[in-house]
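I'm stuck. Please check this protein.
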Amino acid sequence: MEDAEAGQLESPQGPRSAPEQPPHVVVVGGGIAGMAAARQLAVGGARVTLLEASAVLGGKVARHTVAGIPLDAGAESFATRRGTVAAFLAGLGLGDAIVQPDPAGAWLQPAGGAAVPLPKAGLLGIPGTPMAADVIAVIGKRAALRAQLDSLLGYAGYKERTLGGLVRRRMGRAVLEQLVAPVTMGVHSRHPDELELDVVAPGLRSAFLSTVSLAQAVQKLRSAAPAGSAVAGIDGGIFRLVETLEAKLVALGVVLRTGTRVGSVEADRVVLDSGEVIAADRVVLACALRASVAERVEAPEPPGRLPSTGSGSVSAADPVETSGIVLATLVVRAPELDAAPRGTGLLVAAGADGIRAKALTHSTAKWPWLAARTGPGTHVLRLSYNAESAPHGCEELREQARADAERLLGVPIPASGILGFDRVEWARPARAATASGSAASDSAALGAATPRGVTVIGEAVAGTGLAAVIAQAKQGADNLLTELAQ
């Protein structure tokens, strides 16, 4: 043994090479995208190190406690399309915890007039039947007739890149601003003109081309979807996903390093702010490079910018200019809300007089499991605001949220009835770029020159929502495993 060459072992048949180490992959960003990719890579045989700037994993899937009740501080539901999230949860042992929301559905607060139930037969607010009574109740008969012209326009608008461009061309401005915009602002925190059609509504363009009608395309997609709600949740809260996934990563041997800020990323290494260099066979970037995840912040951060280095590496030290979403959670004592007067909540059209919130979720009406935990008369209300329009102080936001909730729900909610309140702010992703996942589009979405060989995942390229993020993260990890094997 002493005479053997370095890196070899003696055997009766002569020297043999030491076993090869599996490839080492460093994942930068510990949100759901980074965690999902890390699991997929570890299951595929890679050694994985996961770096996260904040003290906890999970990114926008987080928990907080308000009035003694553990609640979701970020995402509180997931899209059921294609079964992506359900299959992922089943693989984690959470399949039996998937729950459906109350079927009452959401309402819409128009810019003028009283709140009305959101039209049922639609997709992202696009009506499947433009002349339906519930559509006319929102936009009026004249606008509904304009939307009905969709059936006569042939292929007009089929090249439109954004959701807003297609809806405006096919059905008119009223449908866009009064139906679609409130939905996308409430769900994706972006106007339809900022959302790429093929990312936010996969399959809609091809359905439109096959039916030559946007309304019929919506009907086709809805009929092809599995029965049940378009969204689902987890009994106890979506935050259970993070807790379970973290335990799975530990069991798989993934090295988890929280509180670890990345200074720069290259194809074969990551340099930390501390100066430590972590060598890797490959690097996965699961965040915008302003920080290691879209972090929860307790107060607004000053905007900044991320310069392109043009040097084959990118810096994570400088913030990029972004706006945020502010969530105001109220736990109130209001027995009048037991009747769920506005269904599971409301989406708010721009210009609604005196209302600054863009959406309200009546959580205890939406989720029966939560209502069972709080008991009659106690309700959880969650209102979302654009950071630019939300009051900065907690007391001011608390009062604004109370007043908005009172007006939207049509039920008195005195200040004395507030049992608990919390403010959480999240940064928006840089943008949901394209569905291609190409290096060029990934770099554009991150606002930086991503080095060749770095795999980019996350909502800045996948689009918002757990379904999109998990699907793209798993695909990116599978592609990387294939490349490493070759």
Q: What stands out?
A: The two ends are 33 Å apart (CA to CA).
